[in-house]
Amino acid sequence: xxxxxxxxxxxxxxxxxxxxxxxxxxxxxxxxxxxxxxxxxxxxxxxxxxxxxxxxxxxxxxxxxxxxxxxxxxxxxxxxxxxxxxxxxxxxxxxxxxxxxxxxxxxxxxxxxxxxxxxxxxxxxxxxxxxxxxxxxxxxxxxxxxxxxxxxxxxxxxxxxxxxxxxxxxxxxxxxxxxxxxxxxxxxxxxxxxxxxxxxxxxxxxxxxxxxxxxxxxxxxxxxxxxxxxxxxxxxxxxxxxxxxxxxxxxxxxxxxxxxxxxxxxxxxxxxxxxxxxxxxxxxxxxxxxxxxxxxxxxxxxxxxxxxxxxxxxxxxxxxxxxxxxxxxxxxxxxxxxxxxxxxxxxxxxxxxxxxxxxxxxxxxxxxxxxxxxxxxxxxxxxxxxxxxxxxxxxxxxxxxxxxxxxxxxxxxxxxxxxxxxxxxxxxxxxxxxxxxxxxxxxxxxxxxxxxxxxxxxxxxxxxxxxxxxxxxxxxxxxxxxxxxxxxxxxxxxxxxxxxxxxxxxxxxxxxxxxxxxxxxxxxxxxxxxxxxxxxxxxxxxxxxxxxxxxxxxxxxxxxxxxxxxxxxxxxxxxxxxxxxxxxxxxxxxxxxxxxxxxxxxxxx
Amino acid sequence: xxxxxxxxxxxxxxxxxxxxxxxxxxxxxxxxxxxxxxxxxxxxxxxxxxxxxxxxxxx
Lengths: 605, 59
Fold this sequence. Notes:
Largest interface: A-B, 35 and 27 residues
Distance between the termini of chain A: 64 Å
Number of domains of chain A: 5
CATH class of the largest domain in chain A: Alpha Beta
Shape of chain B: globular
Strand order of the largest sheet of chain A: 10-9-13-11-12
CATH superfamily of the largest domain in chain A: NADH-ubiquinone oxidoreductase 51kDa subunit
Oligomer: heterodimer
Largest sheet of chain A: 5 strands, mixed
Number of strands of chain A: 17
Radius of gyration of chain B: 11 Å
Structural class of chain B: mainly alpha
Radius of gyration of chain A: 26 Å
Helix content of chain B: 25-40%
Shape of chain A: globular
Largest sheet of chain B: none
Distance between the termini of chain B: 20 Å
Number of helices of chain B: 2
Structural class of chain A: alpha/beta
Strand content of chain A: 5-15%
């Protein structure tokens, strides 16, 4: 028996901020003190709060230490583990708490979260099948093996689970199509090709709870009549792939994968296919082609994968998060329990990767129906630096931009679609008042344009033409007719592209035009970028009335474009200024102004 | 018995080649096919070693 369990976040985010070195130092300190045998050290899954990583949680005390450095480990061992006293300086502190906070119950980041999919992340050793079983794992499989296939599909339908990969198609209905498709050979494919910039939900689930995905796939296999599965995971996720391989090996050894699973007569073989990272391979028919060893390109549908899928056989394709929900639904009484959370049309929870200008970046799991305001301000802690919230990009490059005016919009499939966005896989990129919406649309379109596979003309050529127009606008060469041309091209691409990439990639442009048309018009008609992003379309000026002459901007300017004496208002030499933004970031008095090119001073914007 | 896959005694037959339908339930609540305090304790020892708190094990 161990006195305490030390869960060190071993997910990619914390690993990249040094959790491996922390684990090593902690081990050395425990050895030095001769107490290593009293404590269990586990490199666990992601507790979500990436902003404050590396993170250690100590059980059973439930103390959450964050922003750790290897040099903190000696104090942690002596004071907490040996001395029994919490190290206050290593607890979470922030403007959203009055005093250093200990754990879930006192850290606002966790206050509105509900852990379904992330139930085991950071709680179990992801490389231990025994721990997964202790947490109720594989019980839903055992139950499913005793059920009729249609009954499993019905339970998933009753739970109201919709696919978490983007489109939100009812999972139980999808399974029913494959189940009814003729033929003895069928496949289950797990789509782990997470490619949205800023999204890492699937990676964290795979790294933190790989057995949940295997169990979900096994149940899907029983429901669809499939005996083989593929996990299509991008090779950029080496930790997730390593943990999946370990999980598969363990499940095979335990007789939970392979032949005659739990003496039921049900067989299932699991394979991993590593993808090369093409965004288009997240599209199901391109993904299937890639599994078959062909170039990842989509094909027209019908026939749908449920009829003609991988290697020409009926195939069900589910996203990682969808599959992680399955064991919760198929367990005894699970469907009814599951349906209690969420809204009428969107049941359960949704995992989001919260990124951008929000204070608390990380992985969050919230009930469907929560508002954007709750996610950004209650969970996310508001905007960095106390600036103004401007918009949020939901659903990655295929999604849309939701403006401040819709801050009370509930996050569910139908509300997001109505607003012109999509749930997507769950990326939420938050923007403040210094984000240029034209530049944002250009960024996302340049991503999808590069990732377009080139098979169909509307996507290949249309995105290129749209991008050229956006580039012109941000360079100050926009034309009055550009907005109509963009709108027309966007709708043509959406209507005539072969796959989801083309059908959704104009969304960021369309939603930014819909909600921020005035910014486009300012760029085109007035040659002005109010956010100070498009360099030819603004200049910095120093507010002479408020500048205290502290010289902070002078010191930080890399091209010596700011002159002025100490305690006297400074001035920017426009001919030298490269508009790098270093001064505006540094000025404590907020007296660097973004103004129209050529203006003397314009504080109105 | 260090892991759930290890047999608690000669009465446990579960392996991947000779599967038992009750294996999953048996890991935490077992033994199911026979009665033995000693075998139950072996399972408890595995869970107690890693359980973070009293709510950790879910039956």
